[in-house]
Amino acid sequence: MFLVYPRSVTIPEALERLDDANFEDWLTAAFIETASQAPSEETNTNGNSRHPAGITDLWMLEIEERTGEVWLGKFQVELKNEEKPSDDSSTGQRSAELSFALDTRTAEITFEPVALAH
């Protein structure tokens, strides 16, 4: 299963849980639930995703900055190519780090890719 993330998402329940001790664990689960329900924003004329890679797992969600109205964080994801790799030495999988910003007034979360590692 590939998880699809829009550029931003609003999770209203997050505002009720900001002070919870296990907020990061809850937010991880909310990301997975929200992503798997979200349709792909970008599809071609055949209805297929324009991006050949999808997120198959996420972990290590961490909120690094909890100051002000916008909190900043990141998490690790596993990406898997839908297309076959061009050489047999590659598994078609890689990891990436995604950054996000959580607006604590509106519960809007925006995502931004940071770095890819093979």
Task: Report what the structure shows.
- The structure is a single chain.
- The protein has 118 residues and is of the alpha+beta class.
- It has one domain (8-38, 49-117): Nuclear Transport Factor 2, Chain: A, CATH 3.10.450.
- Helices cover 16% and strands 42% of the residues.
- It is built from two helices and five strands.
- It has a five-stranded antiparallel beta sheet, with helices on one face.
- Strand 2 (53-65) and strand 3 (70-81) form a beta hairpin.
- The two termini are 20 Å apart.
- The mean pLDDT is 77.
For the record, the CATH architecture stands as Roll
**Would you give the CATH topology?**
Nuclear Transport Factor 2, Chain: A
User: Can you give the mean pLDDT?
Assistant: 77
Oligomer: single chain
Low-confidence stretches: none
Strands, total number? 5
The total number of structural domains is: 1
* Proportion of helical residues: 10-25%
Rg is: 15 Å
Query: What characteristic shape results from the CA principal axes?
Result: globular
Q: Class in CATH? A: Alpha Beta
Q: Can you summarize the main beta sheet?
A: 5 strands, antiparallel
